[in-house]
Every structure is written in structure tokens, then in C-alpha cells.
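Whiteboard transcription, Tuesday session. T.W. wrote the C-alpha cells on the left side:
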């Protein structure tokens, strides 16, 4: 846990600056390769032990006018739990607790109007098994009482190449920006490099995951450990109707793509 707090000490200022300016921040080699390898081993053991289930999400169904659940293609996930299950993934548990307890206070001081809990959080460990596994465009927080304010993703890959795909697509801020030739609004594609920390506002930043391939087997599985920081006040959750309309006009006014 001390190594995680030291990493936060080194990078908290840069994370705060980039969140304020861009809505997201990227830190490469946030943790040592040894720490990432240990967490990757715990993750692989959870998968091998049958602890990960098909990952579900939701989308707006225009025909029924309702939000419906569906399984993501070739994506498995689990929520890390303490208690009797702690021994299955101790280093990942320690990472989640240490990240929230050390980064939340630093961001609260640096960013005006931000009040993140330094104890309450949620997490998810997810693996893309390849064969085009992907995440549709979405906000992490679609409202309705959800207090998740900040998302922090840590990638646990041993290696990554362009052929593996699975880049994280972050849609960038800006007014009046036109779609490209493929109809996509302005974005950046971020490779899921092992040890990379990606932090962004859960209620403001639209994002997706491009199709992932793992033709070389389990060594090429795309692993991401997500920690969601929670706002202490529901009023801290933002809603931008204009941005929602730009990205999800085809989903009506209540669908907003995908959650999770």
C-alpha cells in the first residue's frame, strides 16, 4: 500500500491538472512492473477458478422505449469483495483501498467543487477474451442516484501490440466539433498498456472500448481493474443535456448508450 501512496504523491498534481483541463488524465508506469504482474496473476487465478461471470450492461431499446440488459460479447467481470474472499486477490484489494484513501483527498484540495469520499468506492475487474470483445459508447454514470464521480482504470497487460486492439476511446470535450468520415465525434484512442492508469470523470466523459483480439491466447487477454470514486453529495454529479444529445441522439432522451 505504501508504494501506491508514493505513486499518488508523484502524480496527483498532474492528474488534477489534466482532469481540470481535459476531463481525463493518463499516467504511464503508475505502478512497477512487478506490482502489475502480481495483480495480473491474481486476476488470472480468479478467471481460472470460475469467479468471473459474463459482464452485463444496459442500452436503450427504441422499440420498447425501455432500458434493457444485455451481455457484452466475450467480456467477463467480477466485483472484488473482502471478508472471506479477501485471500483470493489481496494485492488488488489493497490497491483499491490505498488509491481511494490517498488520491481522493489530494483531488479534493486541488479541484474546486470536488468532494470525493476517501473510503466509499466501487470496483470491477474485467477481462476481454478477444474475438472482437468491446464496450459500446457510454457514460459510466447515467444518473438516477448513482454517486460515482470519478473512474480510475489500471491496465494489467503483460504486453500490447496494435494487432491486439482494445484501445480505450475517449471522446474529447469541445463545442461545434464535427464528426469524422466514419461519423465519429472527436476522440483519442488510448492503448491499454500494462501499468497505465487512466482517470476520468464518470459522469461527464463519454467513452468506449474498441474491439479486442487475443489470437495468441490468454497472454493477450485485455485486463482492466476499475475503481469508482464516489461523490459525497448527489449535487456533485453533473448532467450535460447538450453533450448527451450530441452523442446519443438516436437513443432518445433517456437511453444514453451503455452503463458499466
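and on the right, the sequence the group agreed on:
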Amino acid at each position: 500500500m505504501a508504494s501506491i501512496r508514493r505513486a499518488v504523491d508523484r502524480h496527483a498534481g498532474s492528474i488534477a491538472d489534466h482532469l481540470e483541463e481535459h476531463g481525463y488524465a493518463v499516467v504511464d508506469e503508475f505502478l512497477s512492473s512487478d506490482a502489475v504482474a502480481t495483480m495480473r496473476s491474481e486476476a488470472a487465478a480468479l478467471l481460472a477458478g470460475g469467479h468471473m461471470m459474463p459482464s452485463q450492461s444496459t442500452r436503450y431499446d427504441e422499440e420498447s422505449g425501455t432500458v434493457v440488459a444485455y451481455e457484452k460479447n466475450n467480456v467477463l467481470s467480477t466485483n472484488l469483495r473482502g471478508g472471506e474472499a479477501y485471500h483470493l486477490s489481496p494485492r488488488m484489494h489493497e490497491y483499491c483501498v490505498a488509491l481511494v484513501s490517498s488520491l481522493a483527498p489530494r483531488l479534493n484540495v486541488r479541484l474546486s467543487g470536488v468532494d470525493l469520499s476517501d473510503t466509499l468506492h466501487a470496483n470491477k475487474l474485467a477481462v476481454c477474451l478477444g474475438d472482437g470483445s468491446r464496450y459500446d459508447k457510454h457514460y459510466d454514470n447515467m444518473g438516477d442516484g448513482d454517486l460515482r464521480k470519478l473512474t480510475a482504470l489500471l491496465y494489467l497487460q503483460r504486453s500490447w501490440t496494435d494487432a491486439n486492439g482494445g484501445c480505450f476511446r475517449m471522446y474529447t470535450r469541445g463545442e461545434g466539433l464535427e464528426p469524422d468520415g466514419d461519423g465519429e465525434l472527436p476522440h483519442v484512442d488510448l492503448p491499454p498498456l500494462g501499468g497505465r492508469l487512466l482517470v476520468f470523470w464518470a459522469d461527464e466523459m463519454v467513452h468506449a472500448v474498441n474491439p479486442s483480439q487475443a489470437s495468441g491466447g490468454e497472454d493477450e487477454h485485455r485486463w482492466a481493474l476499475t475503481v469508482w470514486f464516489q461523490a459525497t453529495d448527489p449535487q456533485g454529479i453533473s448532467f450535460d443535456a447538450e453533450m448527451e444529445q450530441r452523442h446519443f441522439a438516436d437513443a432518445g432522451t433517456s437511453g444514453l448508450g451503455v452503463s458499466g
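Someone added at the bottom: Residues 2-22 form the longest helix (21 residues).
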